[in-house]
Amino acid sequence: MKKILPITLLLVSGWAFCQSDFKLKVSGDVPKPLELSLTDLSKMLRKEASLKDKDGSIHVYTGVSVQDILAKAGAPSGKELHGENMTKYLLVKCKDGYQVLFSLAELDASIADKNVIVADTIDGKPLPESKGPLRIIAEGEKKPARSSYQLESLVIGQIKK
């Protein structure tokens, strides 16, 4: 038992150190690419989103609105979302290679009532290591396929003619 405790402390402190170095990258077709630490995100306006898991339990996630993060990077929103800007999208990339796509229009509150957040907590606790440190949550979707684990980057792109 005495030998297990130091090993456990070493593993936990190593995990915490890795998480403290984490940066969410926001790049692509934006005027101000970003690298946001977990601390940066914790200082932004917080929002909640609910999601039903595979066994039917509903969990409440807390984090930052994707729209707020994109606004910080200078992505078009509101009145700017017309013409060619309507062909812009958000590509969400995860650590395991999983990727999902959203149109910028569906994320904009002036066009749609979609609640999509970058979550760092579930039911008031940090996300488990296997699912964090960040998760994208797309509230209200019939299938949670776009609510992705281990979020690493948000990339703005545009469909070309």
UniProtKB/TrEMBL annotation:
Lineage: superkingdom: Bacteria
Transmembrane segments: none
Stretches assigned to the Oxidoreductase molybdopterin-binding domain: 20-139
Keywords: Signal
Signal peptide: 1-18
Pfam families, sorted: Oxidored_molyb
Claim: Manganese is one of the keywords in the record: no
Name recorded for this polypeptide: Oxidoreductase molybdopterin binding domain-containing protein
